[in-house]
Amino acid sequence: MAQLENSPRFQLGARDTLRIILPYVKRHFVGQVEGVWFIVAYLVVFQILVLQLPLVYAAMIAVGILVVVVGLMLFMEGLRLGLMPLGEVIGSVLPRNSRMPVILAFSVLLGAGATFAEPAIAVLKAAGAGVQPGEAPLLYSLLNDFSGQLVGSVATGVGLAVMLGVLRFFYAWPLKNLVIPAVLILLTLSFYFSRIDVLNDVLGLAWDCGAVTTGPVTVPLVLALGIGVCRVVSSGSGSDSHSGFGIVTLASLFPILAVLILSLFHYVRDDYVGAPYYEGATRIEQTAATTSESAAATTGTDRNAISLPEFENYLSAGKLPERHEITFRGGAPRLVDGAIVLDAPEVVIRKALSTEWEVISDAVWDRQQSFGERFQQALIESFRAIVPLCFFLYVVLRLVLKQRLEHGADVGIGVTFALAGMCLFGLGIALGLTPLGAQLGSNVPLTFASITPWGGEHALPPLVDAPDIGKMMAVGFAFFLGYGATLAEPALNALGDTVERITVGAFRKKLLMQSVAVGVGFGIGAGVVTMAYGLPLFWLLAPAYSLALVLTWFAPNGFVNFSWDSAGVTTGPITVPLVLAMGLGIGANVPGVSDGFGILALASVGPILTVLMVGLYTQRTEALARQAESEQTSSGFRAEAPVEAG
Amino acid sequence: MFKNDSASSIITTVLPPMSATRVIAGITARPDASLLSWTARGTVLHDHWWKRWFPPVSPARTALSAIVPAADAGSVVDEIVEVGKLHQQATGAVYSVPCEHTYFGADYHRWPSLPHSQGAITAGGNLGVIHCIIDHRLSDRVARSAIAAGAHGPIVYYCEGRGLRDRLGWLRITKEHEKEVLTVIADPGDVEDVFDAMAVAGQLHLPGRGFMYRLEVDRGLFNLPSRFSHHHYPANMQQIINAIDHLAGHTHWRDQSAADIGGGGRSAGLGIRTPASTLEDQRCLTAIVNRDQLVTLMDLLLDAGAPGLNVNHARFVARDDEEGEEHLAGARINQEYGLLRCVTDTNRTAHLASVIEQHAATAGVTDLCVTVTRAPRVATYLPGTTDFRSPAVQAA
């Protein structure tokens, strides 16, 4: 535009530029610190004060956390400037410049592409690292032999979900009408699966697939797409201003169905490990030797025995090991001069268990972690997540929709920020949060079992003698872990911002984030209860989802939309490693539990319940307030300003 | 100001979403009538300590706006009051701002004027509507001060600011993207106090805080509550009036309540004002333009010297006709419009108006409507002023 080129640009010097940039950077940095400080402080304090164990690799963790904060800051700005405006523009132009088949094809491709861009399969493989082919054959096959099919079925599920979600905007189907039947079908299938041993193992995997599909790049894009479409399309008599949501919900439910169908297919065909038509290479006799970082529970008295050389040292030089305890045993007791005297007791000298009070262990940096390698890995992952999607969207915008992008430079800056942010974020998580989570995860069972702490040399007894109290402590830990990790999630931040923007501030971001975080906390606590007591997953999943259905039926439409969406956004790059590490740690110390599946699915249902409850409460207070006002004015006297001059 | 000028009024109404649907149906039943609609929220104040982490959910509102010929303003306002049941529901407001000058672009969907005219409109300036554009972190404080000064809870919607920051090249990414617009409609006795209170609370005399202006309203009705979730708030004027009505058993006492207390009544807490010093020559230029042409118009105005623009987006609503409306799979595709506002002195406004008239058609901006209204009072940062507790006088 000729006018733009002639428009006066102010040339700012370096100092003035800095004066503008520094408050901006500070504002966003502090904002991200506010989200992340709780989980970090909580983990550190729990390890040091409750478990009384030293923090290993402290310097690396500190550096990692700082990198995470910087990465989050850049990523969130990148979302705001680049990805979300791009999605919204496409959403608002798509209904006007193209026809229905094109719109549907675009939706399917977007959904499937997003799944391949942010593969959740690595996460699921990590969760299933301890699965033995002998114990859970179908599950093992799905994760190892048929992993390509697994990803494909998840991608199909997500693609169909996005398509259905976009169709919903045009035909004004309330989200309730889609969610309630879908969840009922899933629950029925799950009930059938829980009756058959082989299929029961797959339940956790299937429900977790739904929880992990939509990642921190997909969610904002899909949200913005929905918002853009709803801005432009008004179907029915009144347009519900909250109706841009719902795609994320469907994208979390459909993959579950897809995976259940896939496993049913293989079950019927009998071609998994150990079944007649199996074509893979694993034999059940071989034990898959995958060990997780948390060592199996060692009963730990071996290291605390006084060895032969130490005994000989005592005989010759009279020297006892440095930490020892002396106890008396036996002897005939007599009461002499108001004191108990034992005749000829046995004196027993034992090595005392180490109770060194160390806050930070000597190992401050993991020598085996190669910074360069991690950085490269994070960079590749972030490219893979962002670039193909943005490229696809841009190509669709220019070629199919034939629309120029306003402020293309801003979007470019935004995408660059998102790339840099995601790369740093991934690096920081690998350096900082993953070791911290692994430590905590392996050490938490110390509350109810005797284990060797992570990085430690010998075993410690459980903190609390009664195993039930110890397990409840672990559940309490899990609640705050879920709460804190959720507050730091970028996708949830993006959802909160979007909800606040769409409702023009009526529903604040803080309210959404706090209710979701509390819900996730309860969900993860419930998951740990399942693991610690070895309960079948279905016993907790079915009542939770049934309650969610009941609440959905009664809740106002606007709340239903973003409450189910908040379930889809919760399990993200911060929550999942922490929860999995904890799940593996606890699972290794409870007999009979082999994998970490299931906790994530329960973590997804918690926020649905809490947000729907907030919605019902709001509906009730509104009704009461309206009643109070109509009573106030129905007395016949109206407070009105003088009407009409002349 | 414009070569093809006409007299019109901007009628704005704020309603709960369900009433808004009824009102839209009622108004668009008129031939060739159209409205712009956007979402807003009411205000709920929270005082419990735990509301810091669990803030209450504010009530949703729909704002509707239409530019109608001046002669029809009365009937449209009456119809809105009728259909929206604004006498009874105590949740809505409607007001009409008379425009001094109006310009319609070639493609703009304008209301037809009815053949009979209802005579000249006397602008009595009875009500005042205050628009305060402020950062979202400060809006709560300003809302509280407005309520404490005796107004209802402000209606809030979002707008984007455009101006200096956009000319800085890539640094425009540092801009906070959205500001909140607080709208307060007040009784003639309260409006100046409310304006002062809001200006002081928002510290508008400091640079970068925000902007506030008042428009004249010639007719309107408002029944807007302030909802508190804590009983420690003093009652607002409406609640006091209702209570006295109830105690007295009639409303005639209102005619008898003339009071003239020396000193402006401040010692009695009444704050009856001495005549406010008004500003000279401030005008509010409002432009309604199709979203596709919005950026072109904004650049045009900023280049022509507009000090700053506030933009909010609205949806075009008209009767469901087959012609001219796009449909896709049974859903209607909406047209989006942007509402631009610029408040500045008369000379500059005249210059902007002439720029629009001359260049709009050539620049391709034809789906456009521009109105100019008087803004008797403005509060903002004025370079060179040290103390702001006296009402702002903007230098020409």
Written overview of the protein:
The complex is a heterodimer of chains A (646) and B (396). Chain A has 646 residues and is mostly helical. Chain A is 67% helix and 4% strand. The two termini of chain A are 49 Å apart. Chain B has seven helices and 19 strands. By secondary structure, chain B is an alpha+beta fold. The two termini of chain B are 19 Å apart. Chain B has a 15-stranded antiparallel beta sheet that branches. The radius of gyration of chain B is 21 Å and the shape is globular. Helix content of chain B is 21%, strand content 31%. β1 of chain A pairs antiparallel with β16 (331-333) of chain B.
What is this entry, summarized?
Chain A has 646 residues and is mainly alpha-helical. Chain A has helices at 2-6, 14-50, 58-97, 100-117, 121-127, 137-144, 147-171, 175-195, 197-212, 218-232, 247-269, 308-317, 371-400, 408-443, 467-487, 490-502, 509-533, 537-554, 557-570, 575-589, 599-633; strands spanning 233-234, 324-329, 332-336, 339-343, 346-351. The two termini of chain A are 49 Å apart.
Question: What is the secondary structure topology, with strand pairs?
Answer:
The complex is a heterodimer of chains A (646) and B (396).
Chain A: H1 2-6, H2 14-50, H3 58-97, H4 100-117, H5 121-127, H6 137-144, H7 147-171, H8 175-195, H9 197-212, H10 218-232, E1 233-234, H11 247-269, H12 308-317, E2 324-329, E3 332-336, E4 339-343, E5 346-351, H13 371-400, H14 408-443, H15 467-487, H16 490-502, H17 509-533, H18 537-554, H19 557-570, H20 575-589, H21 599-633
Antiparallel strand pairs in A: 2-5, 3-4
Helix pairs in contact in A: 2-3, 2-14, 2-15, 3-10, 3-13, 3-14, 4-7, 4-13, 7-10, 7-11, 8-9, 8-11, 8-18, 9-11, 9-21, 10-16, 11-19, 13-14, 14-20, 15-17, 15-20, 16-17, 16-19, 17-20, 17-21, 18-21, 19-21
Chain B: E1 8-15, H1 17-28, E2 34-41, E3 44-45, E4 60-69, H2 73-83, E5 93-99, E6 101-104, E7 127-134, H3 139-148, E8 155-162, E9 179-186, H4 191-202, E10 210-217, E11 219-222, E12 227-228, H5 237-248, E13 282-290, H6 294-303, E14 309-318, E15 326-328, E16 331-333, E17 336-345, H7 346-363, E18 368-374, E19 377-379
Parallel strand pairs in B: 3-12
Antiparallel strand pairs in B: 1-4, 1-5, 2-4, 2-14, 5-11, 6-18, 7-9, 7-10, 8-9, 8-14, 10-19, 13-17, 13-18, 14-17, 15-16
Helix pairs in contact in B: 1-2, 3-4, 6-7
